[in-house]
Amino acid sequence: MTDRVPVRTSRQRWMAVLARAPADRLEALLNDAGGVPDYTVLRGPEGGLVMVRGRAGGGGAPFNLGEMTVTRCTVRLGSGPIGHAYVAGREPRRAEIAALVDALMQDPERAETLEARMIAPLEASQKARRAERSGKAAATRVQFFAMQTMRT
């Protein structure tokens, strides 16, 4: 049996980074990276619910875990590219900015600048926060094997 590792495209990567970023940080970085061009909102931003699915043990049979609130938005730049965004929670401005950046990243003239000034710094700060949380969680980990050998 071969392991199937999903291939992550660059768009999936930047959309994941944008979906996790706070709205005020997105807006500040966008302004620093060249400002906000003219765009049209095609859909939303609007809130709704999605069903979150889980797997027992990480690889077992899927099951419905519950519903989660999301906000989605779709925008079109004056030059044509269309951007989409889904963000957790009820944050219409964050969804709109994320959709706008998604559309801008599809423009080859702006993509490199946005990658360097927005996506890379956001991704680095998100990785640092994740590592910090993992470190705190690891510090509370209990080694049950060691406790078992102490009893014998």
Number of strands: 3
Distance between the termini: 40 Å
What class do helices, strands and sheet pairing give? alpha+beta
Question: What share of the residues does DSSP label as strand, in percent?
Answer: 25-35%
Give me the side-by-side strand order of the main sheet: 1-2-3
Spatial shape: globular
Query: What is the number of helical segments per DSSP (H or I, 4+ residues)?
Result: 5
Q: Secondary-structure element order, as H and E? A: HHEEEHHH
The portion of residues assigned to helices is 40-55%
Spans of at least 5 consecutive residues whose pLDDT stays below 50 are: none
| Backbone CA Rg | 20 Å
Largest sheet: 3 strands, antiparallel
Mean pLDDT: 86
